[in-house]
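Molecular record:
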Amino acid sequence: MSIADALRARIATEGPISVADYMGAANAAYYASRDPLGAAGDFVTAPEISQMFGELIGLWLADLWLRAGKPGGVHYAELGPGRGTLAADALRAMRGIGLQPPVELVETSPALRDEQLSRIAAARWHDDVDGLPTQGPLLIVANEFFDALPVHQFVREDDGWRELVVATEGEGFRRESGPAATEALPHAETGAIVERSPASAGIAAKLARRLAAHGGAALFIDYGHERRGIGDTLQAVSNHGYADPWEAPGTRDLTAHVDFEALHDAARAEGVRVYGAIGQGAFLRAMGIDLRAAQLAKAAPERTEEIVAARERLAAPEQMGRLFKVMALVAPRWPEPEGF
Protein backbone atom coordinates (compact mmCIF):
# COMPACT_ATOMS: atom_id res chain seq x y z
CA MET A 1 0.00 0.00 0.00
CA SER A 2 1.36 3.43 -0.93
CA ILE A 3 1.65 6.09 1.75
CA ALA A 4 -1.09 8.05 -0.05
CA ASP A 5 -3.45 5.07 0.23
CA ALA A 6 -2.46 4.53 3.86
CA LEU A 7 -3.19 8.18 4.68
CA ARG A 8 -6.55 8.02 2.89
CA ALA A 9 -7.47 4.89 4.85
CA ARG A 10 -6.45 6.53 8.11
CA ILE A 11 -8.45 9.68 7.39
CA ALA A 12 -11.47 7.60 6.39
CA THR A 13 -11.29 5.83 9.78
CA GLU A 14 -10.16 8.61 12.12
CA GLY A 15 -11.19 11.79 10.32
CA PRO A 16 -8.84 14.60 9.26
CA ILE A 17 -5.30 14.44 10.66
CA SER A 18 -2.88 17.18 11.71
CA VAL A 19 -0.52 18.74 9.20
CA ALA A 20 2.31 17.37 11.37
CA ASP A 21 1.02 13.80 11.06
CA TYR A 22 0.65 14.17 7.29
CA MET A 23 4.13 15.68 6.91
CA GLY A 24 5.76 13.10 9.16
CA ALA A 25 4.25 10.14 7.32
CA ALA A 26 4.96 11.59 3.88
CA ASN A 27 8.61 12.36 4.64
CA ALA A 28 9.23 9.01 6.32
CA ALA A 29 8.06 7.26 3.13
CA TYR A 30 9.95 9.67 0.89
CA TYR A 31 13.35 9.29 2.54
CA ALA A 32 13.01 5.55 3.03
CA SER A 33 12.60 4.94 -0.68
CA ARG A 34 15.30 7.02 -2.42
CA ASP A 35 18.45 9.09 -2.51
CA PRO A 36 16.88 12.52 -3.14
CA LEU A 37 20.14 14.45 -3.61
CA GLY A 38 22.04 15.64 -6.65
CA ALA A 39 21.19 16.39 -10.25
CA ALA A 40 19.29 13.12 -10.63
CA GLY A 41 17.33 13.71 -7.41
CA ASP A 42 15.05 16.45 -6.15
CA PHE A 43 17.42 18.98 -4.51
CA VAL A 44 21.04 19.85 -3.75
CA THR A 45 22.35 20.69 -0.27
CA ALA A 46 25.36 22.81 0.67
CA PRO A 47 27.83 19.92 1.14
CA GLU A 48 27.16 18.80 -2.44
CA ILE A 49 27.93 22.29 -3.77
CA SER A 50 31.51 22.43 -2.52
CA GLN A 51 33.97 20.67 -0.21
CA MET A 52 34.55 24.08 1.41
CA PHE A 53 31.32 23.82 3.36
CA GLY A 54 32.14 20.60 5.20
CA GLU A 55 35.80 21.52 5.64
CA LEU A 56 34.97 24.76 7.44
CA ILE A 57 32.48 22.99 9.70
CA GLY A 58 35.14 20.40 10.54
CA LEU A 59 37.61 23.15 11.39
CA TRP A 60 35.02 24.91 13.57
CA LEU A 61 34.49 21.73 15.58
CA ALA A 62 38.19 20.89 15.78
CA ASP A 63 39.07 24.41 16.91
CA LEU A 64 36.64 24.14 19.83
CA TRP A 65 38.04 20.73 20.75
CA LEU A 66 41.61 22.07 20.70
CA ARG A 67 40.78 25.08 22.86
CA ALA A 68 38.80 22.86 25.25
CA GLY A 69 42.05 21.01 25.98
CA LYS A 70 41.68 18.07 23.56
CA PRO A 71 39.31 16.08 25.77
CA GLY A 72 39.27 12.33 25.21
CA GLY A 73 36.28 10.18 24.33
CA VAL A 74 34.88 12.71 21.84
CA HIS A 75 32.50 11.55 19.07
CA TYR A 76 31.43 13.21 15.83
CA ALA A 77 27.65 12.96 15.40
CA GLU A 78 25.59 14.09 12.42
CA LEU A 79 21.82 14.23 12.11
CA GLY A 80 20.39 13.59 8.66
CA PRO A 81 23.83 13.25 7.01
CA GLY A 82 22.59 12.93 3.43
CA ARG A 83 25.16 11.06 1.34
CA GLY A 84 27.84 11.48 3.99
CA THR A 85 29.57 14.20 1.97
CA LEU A 86 29.63 16.76 4.77
CA ALA A 87 30.92 14.20 7.27
CA ALA A 88 33.68 13.05 4.90
CA ASP A 89 34.84 16.62 4.27
CA ALA A 90 34.62 17.62 7.96
CA LEU A 91 36.47 14.52 9.13
CA ARG A 92 39.24 15.11 6.59
CA ALA A 93 39.71 18.65 7.90
CA MET A 94 39.73 17.35 11.50
CA ARG A 95 42.39 14.76 10.71
CA GLY A 96 44.65 17.55 9.50
CA ILE A 97 44.90 18.85 13.07
CA GLY A 98 44.98 15.55 14.86
CA LEU A 99 41.32 14.85 15.64
CA GLN A 100 39.96 11.47 14.48
CA PRO A 101 36.74 10.84 16.41
CA PRO A 102 34.43 7.84 16.03
CA VAL A 103 31.48 8.69 13.78
CA GLU A 104 27.82 8.43 14.80
CA LEU A 105 25.15 9.03 12.13
CA VAL A 106 21.44 9.50 12.85
CA GLU A 107 19.77 8.19 9.70
CA THR A 108 16.73 6.01 9.02
CA SER A 109 16.86 5.81 5.22
CA PRO A 110 18.35 2.50 3.91
CA ALA A 111 19.21 4.17 0.60
CA LEU A 112 21.11 6.99 2.28
CA ARG A 113 22.83 4.66 4.74
CA ASP A 114 24.30 2.83 1.75
CA GLU A 115 25.60 6.13 0.35
CA GLN A 116 27.06 7.08 3.73
CA LEU A 117 28.75 3.69 4.08
CA SER A 118 30.59 4.24 0.80
CA ARG A 119 32.14 7.43 2.20
CA ILE A 120 32.53 6.69 5.93
CA ALA A 121 33.08 2.97 6.34
CA ALA A 122 33.63 3.02 10.11
CA ALA A 123 30.44 4.89 11.03
CA ARG A 124 27.77 3.63 13.41
CA TRP A 125 24.13 4.32 12.59
CA HIS A 126 21.25 5.27 14.87
CA ASP A 127 17.53 5.60 14.21
CA ASP A 128 17.21 8.66 16.46
CA VAL A 129 19.23 10.89 18.79
CA ASP A 130 18.44 8.65 21.76
CA GLY A 131 20.94 6.14 20.37
CA LEU A 132 23.93 8.52 20.47
CA PRO A 133 26.74 7.69 22.91
CA THR A 134 26.09 8.72 26.49
CA GLN A 135 29.73 9.10 27.58
CA GLY A 136 32.25 11.69 26.44
CA PRO A 137 31.77 14.95 24.51
CA LEU A 138 29.80 15.09 21.28
CA LEU A 139 30.59 17.27 18.26
CA ILE A 140 27.19 17.48 16.57
CA VAL A 141 26.19 18.74 13.13
CA ALA A 142 22.63 19.05 11.82
CA ASN A 143 22.56 20.50 8.30
CA GLU A 144 19.12 20.77 6.69
CA PHE A 145 17.73 18.38 9.25
CA PHE A 146 15.19 20.40 11.21
CA ASP A 147 13.41 21.76 8.12
CA ALA A 148 12.08 18.25 7.32
CA LEU A 149 10.64 17.65 10.79
CA PRO A 150 6.84 17.88 11.15
CA VAL A 151 5.12 21.18 11.91
CA HIS A 152 1.66 21.85 13.28
CA GLN A 153 -0.16 24.75 11.62
CA PHE A 154 -2.72 27.03 13.26
CA VAL A 155 -4.99 29.61 11.64
CA ARG A 156 -6.57 32.67 13.24
CA GLU A 157 -10.30 32.78 12.57
CA ASP A 158 -12.98 35.19 13.75
CA ASP A 159 -13.77 33.02 16.77
CA GLY A 160 -10.12 32.36 17.73
CA TRP A 161 -7.33 29.98 16.76
CA ARG A 162 -7.90 26.61 15.14
CA GLU A 163 -5.47 23.90 14.10
CA LEU A 164 -5.29 23.20 10.39
CA VAL A 165 -5.91 19.57 9.49
CA VAL A 166 -5.61 17.45 6.34
CA ALA A 167 -8.60 15.80 4.68
CA THR A 168 -8.99 13.90 1.42
CA GLU A 169 -10.09 15.56 -1.81
CA GLY A 170 -10.49 13.28 -4.80
CA GLU A 171 -7.17 11.56 -5.42
CA GLY A 172 -5.33 14.18 -3.40
CA PHE A 173 -5.55 15.95 -0.06
CA ARG A 174 -6.46 19.39 1.22
CA ARG A 175 -6.14 21.48 4.35
CA GLU A 176 -9.12 22.69 6.30
CA SER A 177 -9.86 24.33 9.60
CA GLY A 178 -9.96 21.86 12.47
CA PRO A 179 -10.44 21.91 16.24
CA ALA A 180 -10.06 24.95 18.45
CA ALA A 181 -6.49 25.52 19.64
CA THR A 182 -4.81 27.40 22.46
CA GLU A 183 -2.30 29.17 20.20
CA ALA A 184 -2.18 32.85 21.17
CA LEU A 185 -0.76 35.70 19.13
CA PRO A 186 -2.92 38.65 20.18
CA HIS A 187 -2.03 40.91 17.25
CA ALA A 188 -2.49 38.34 14.48
CA GLU A 189 -5.12 39.19 11.88
CA THR A 190 -7.87 36.85 10.75
CA GLY A 191 -6.42 34.34 8.30
CA ALA A 192 -2.92 34.45 9.78
CA ILE A 193 -1.12 31.09 9.96
CA VAL A 194 1.56 30.15 12.49
CA GLU A 195 3.69 27.02 12.63
CA ARG A 196 5.03 25.13 15.62
CA SER A 197 7.35 22.09 15.67
CA PRO A 198 7.40 20.31 19.04
CA ALA A 199 9.50 17.58 17.43
CA SER A 200 12.26 20.08 16.58
CA ALA A 201 12.25 21.69 20.02
CA GLY A 202 12.31 18.26 21.65
CA ILE A 203 15.39 17.17 19.73
CA ALA A 204 17.19 20.45 20.43
CA ALA A 205 16.46 19.99 24.15
CA LYS A 206 17.77 16.41 24.15
CA LEU A 207 20.99 17.40 22.43
CA ALA A 208 21.50 20.37 24.75
CA ARG A 209 20.92 18.18 27.80
CA ARG A 210 23.54 15.78 26.49
CA LEU A 211 26.07 18.59 25.89
CA ALA A 212 25.46 20.15 29.28
CA ALA A 213 26.13 16.83 31.01
CA HIS A 214 29.15 15.59 29.04
CA GLY A 215 30.60 18.47 27.04
CA GLY A 216 30.88 19.28 23.37
CA ALA A 217 29.12 21.52 20.87
CA ALA A 218 26.47 21.43 18.17
CA LEU A 219 26.03 23.33 14.94
CA PHE A 220 22.54 23.69 13.41
CA ILE A 221 22.43 24.94 9.80
CA ASP A 222 19.12 25.35 8.03
CA TYR A 223 16.86 27.80 6.29
CA GLY A 224 14.42 29.64 8.49
CA HIS A 225 13.77 32.70 10.63
CA GLU A 226 15.55 34.03 13.70
CA ARG A 227 12.31 35.00 15.45
CA ARG A 228 8.89 33.38 15.58
CA GLY A 229 6.69 34.80 12.90
CA ILE A 230 3.47 34.49 10.95
CA GLY A 231 3.20 32.69 7.64
CA ASP A 232 2.64 29.40 5.86
CA THR A 233 6.11 28.11 4.91
CA LEU A 234 5.27 24.47 4.21
CA GLN A 235 6.47 23.55 0.74
CA ALA A 236 7.21 20.55 -1.45
CA VAL A 237 10.18 20.09 -3.76
CA SER A 238 10.40 17.60 -6.60
CA ASN A 239 12.90 17.43 -9.47
CA HIS A 240 14.55 20.70 -8.35
CA GLY A 241 11.30 22.65 -8.49
CA TYR A 242 8.38 23.50 -6.25
CA ALA A 243 5.46 21.06 -6.21
CA ASP A 244 2.03 20.77 -4.61
CA PRO A 245 2.51 19.44 -1.04
CA TRP A 246 -1.03 18.04 -1.02
CA GLU A 247 -0.50 15.73 -3.99
CA ALA A 248 1.41 12.42 -4.16
CA PRO A 249 2.74 12.34 -0.56
CA GLY A 250 5.85 10.22 -0.24
CA THR A 251 7.14 11.19 -3.70
CA ARG A 252 8.34 14.72 -2.86
CA ASP A 253 10.26 16.39 -0.06
CA LEU A 254 8.14 18.38 2.42
CA THR A 255 9.85 21.12 4.43
CA ALA A 256 9.04 24.19 6.50
CA HIS A 257 11.15 27.11 7.66
CA VAL A 258 12.96 26.41 10.92
CA ASP A 259 11.96 28.45 13.96
CA PHE A 260 15.41 29.19 15.41
CA GLU A 261 13.91 31.07 18.33
CA ALA A 262 12.16 27.88 19.45
CA LEU A 263 15.42 25.91 19.13
CA HIS A 264 17.23 28.62 21.10
CA ASP A 265 14.69 28.58 23.93
CA ALA A 266 14.62 24.78 24.14
CA ALA A 267 18.41 24.53 24.27
CA ARG A 268 18.96 27.38 26.73
CA ALA A 269 16.49 25.79 29.13
CA GLU A 270 18.85 22.78 29.36
CA GLY A 271 21.86 24.81 30.45
CA VAL A 272 23.98 25.26 27.32
CA ARG A 273 25.18 28.52 25.80
CA VAL A 274 23.52 29.39 22.49
CA TYR A 275 25.06 31.54 19.73
CA GLY A 276 23.14 32.87 16.74
CA ALA A 277 21.24 32.32 14.63
CA ILE A 278 23.30 34.29 12.09
CA GLY A 279 23.34 34.14 8.31
CA GLN A 280 25.22 31.25 6.74
CA GLY A 281 27.18 33.69 4.59
CA ALA A 282 28.43 35.67 7.58
CA PHE A 283 29.45 32.46 9.35
CA LEU A 284 31.31 31.00 6.36
CA ARG A 285 33.15 34.24 5.65
CA ALA A 286 34.16 34.51 9.33
CA MET A 287 35.46 30.94 9.11
CA GLY A 288 37.59 31.73 6.04
CA ILE A 289 35.66 30.61 2.97
CA ASP A 290 37.29 33.34 0.86
CA LEU A 291 40.78 32.16 1.79
CA ARG A 292 39.86 28.51 1.23
CA ALA A 293 38.39 29.32 -2.19
CA ALA A 294 41.61 31.13 -3.14
CA GLN A 295 43.67 28.12 -2.04
CA LEU A 296 41.58 25.71 -4.09
CA ALA A 297 41.69 27.98 -7.15
CA LYS A 298 45.49 28.29 -6.89
CA ALA A 299 45.81 24.49 -6.72
CA ALA A 300 43.48 23.99 -9.71
CA PRO A 301 43.39 27.19 -11.84
CA GLU A 302 41.18 25.51 -14.44
CA ARG A 303 38.44 25.24 -11.78
CA THR A 304 38.58 28.88 -10.62
CA GLU A 305 35.24 29.86 -12.12
CA GLU A 306 33.53 26.79 -10.62
CA ILE A 307 35.06 27.41 -7.18
CA VAL A 308 34.09 31.09 -7.14
CA ALA A 309 30.53 30.22 -8.21
CA ALA A 310 30.26 27.65 -5.40
CA ARG A 311 31.55 30.15 -2.83
CA GLU A 312 28.98 32.72 -3.93
CA ARG A 313 26.16 30.19 -3.93
CA LEU A 314 26.98 29.25 -0.33
CA ALA A 315 27.72 32.72 1.03
CA ALA A 316 26.15 35.47 -1.08
CA PRO A 317 23.13 37.16 0.57
CA GLU A 318 20.96 36.77 -2.53
CA GLN A 319 21.69 33.03 -2.69
CA MET A 320 22.09 30.85 0.46
CA GLY A 321 23.95 33.38 2.59
CA ARG A 322 21.00 35.12 4.23
CA LEU A 323 18.06 32.70 4.16
CA PHE A 324 20.16 29.90 5.66
CA LYS A 325 21.04 30.42 9.32
CA VAL A 326 23.66 28.97 11.64
CA MET A 327 23.17 28.37 15.38
CA ALA A 328 25.67 26.92 17.84
CA LEU A 329 25.14 25.17 21.18
CA VAL A 330 28.21 24.99 23.41
CA ALA A 331 28.65 23.11 26.68
CA PRO A 332 29.00 25.30 29.80
CA ARG A 333 32.73 24.77 30.37
CA TRP A 334 33.79 24.83 26.72
CA PRO A 335 35.35 27.92 25.08
CA GLU A 336 33.62 30.62 23.06
CA PRO A 337 33.08 29.47 19.46
CA GLU A 338 34.49 31.21 16.41
CA GLY A 339 32.29 32.76 13.75
CA PHE A 340 29.54 34.33 15.88
About this structure: The first strand starts at residue 17 and ends at 18. The mean pLDDT is 94. The longest helix spans residues 51-67. The chain has twelve helices and 16 strands.
